Amino acid sequence: MTLSFATTTQAAFLLNISTGRLRDLLNQGRVVNAQKVGRLWMIPLNHRGMPEIKPGRRGPEGTWNKNRRSGNTFVHVLRKTIDYNRDNGTSYQAVAVKVGDKKDYCHALKIHGPCQIVYQPHDPNKSQAGGARLWIEVEPQYIVERVYFSDGDYGPPPEVTEQRAKLKKKKSKQKKPKIKGKRK
Length: 184
What we know:
By secondary structure, the chain is of the alpha+beta class. It has helices at 8-15, 19-27, 79-88, 158-174; strands at residues 5-6, 35-37, 40-44, 73-77, 95-99, 102-106, 108-112, 115-119, 134-138, 143-147. Strand 2 and strand 3 form a beta hairpin. Helix 1 (8-15) packs across helix 2 (19-27).
């Protein structure tokens, strides 16, 4: 069995908790066999591809990894990011992985189980796939392992940054304050 490791961001995504909460667990020594290498935490993954958390002494029991996912995983290849990387010599993550309402970006994927590629040119999937016409769908019981390049560019891909900027600009235009005239 090969032991694989995850970074803080990857492990938080797998556990469905925030990176801040995971850092708290790391500082408390509750993440099994986690090691700090320089400034980065290396978190080992168990046979299910998940980090292991020791239970705390007080408070409610942790809910991570307790409930089975019921929704499919949707995988998108970000064409605009691929074009941006080619034109600018960068290596931003060009694969988007959507699980429920959370989205994560990575450079590559290992899908441990069957999956299907869906192409619907005249009926885009607006509910789960964000209007995509082509996506990869993985059943909820199968693990989708994300792979990141060590020398890759991180942060959201350029097309996501552009979409967020457009949305922010659109919202600010909608919320223009009304100027009232002076009364005499």
